[in-house]
Amino acid sequence: MKKKKPNIKTIIRQIVREEVAMAIKEVVTELKQSTPSKPQTKKIIEKKQYTENSVLNDVLNETAQDDEWKTMGGGKFDSSKMNDVMGGAYGDMMNKNPNIPVSVEGQTPDFLKKDYRAVMKAIDKKQGK
């Protein structure tokens, strides 16, 4: 009698089953090891109507319930950290960043030399002023 060769589909199914079983065991082990010591409790806050858009309203309510946003960036942002908040936005202006062409060796940049009065009059005329 001839020996029947195993079907390739059967071999693939067997290999996939073995791999999935191993992966499931790893995930279950990981979950058992990483269970939090104390259960996290979320405050139940009544939903507020921030906007007419229901999806946006749900996101805003979820954000309001979650406290993580209050300490983003390593701490609470209040007036004592105003320098940190504003420093990134206006720091270049205060440090005379060379990428901002205010003046180069006492010379005025070309865009500051132009007379824009005609342009402004045309805009006013178009707007009906």
Provide an overview of this structure.
The structure is a single chain. With 129 residues, the protein is an all-alpha fold. It has helices at 8-33, 54-65, 82-94, 110-113, 117-127. The radius of gyration is 32 Å and the shape is elongated. The relative contact order is 0.04. The model has no long low-confidence stretch (mean pLDDT 76).
Strand content: under 5%
Shape: elongated
For the termini, the CA-CA separation is 102 Å
What is the structural class? mainly alpha
Q: What is the count of helical runs? A: 5
**Helix proportion range:** 40-55%
Describe the secondary structure blueprint for this structure:
Blueprint: H1 8-33, H2 54-65, H3 82-94, H4 110-113, H5 117-127
Describe the structure in brief:
By secondary structure, the protein is mainly alpha-helical. The chain is built from 5 helices and no strands.
List keywords for this structure.
mainly alpha, 5 helices, 129 residues, elongated
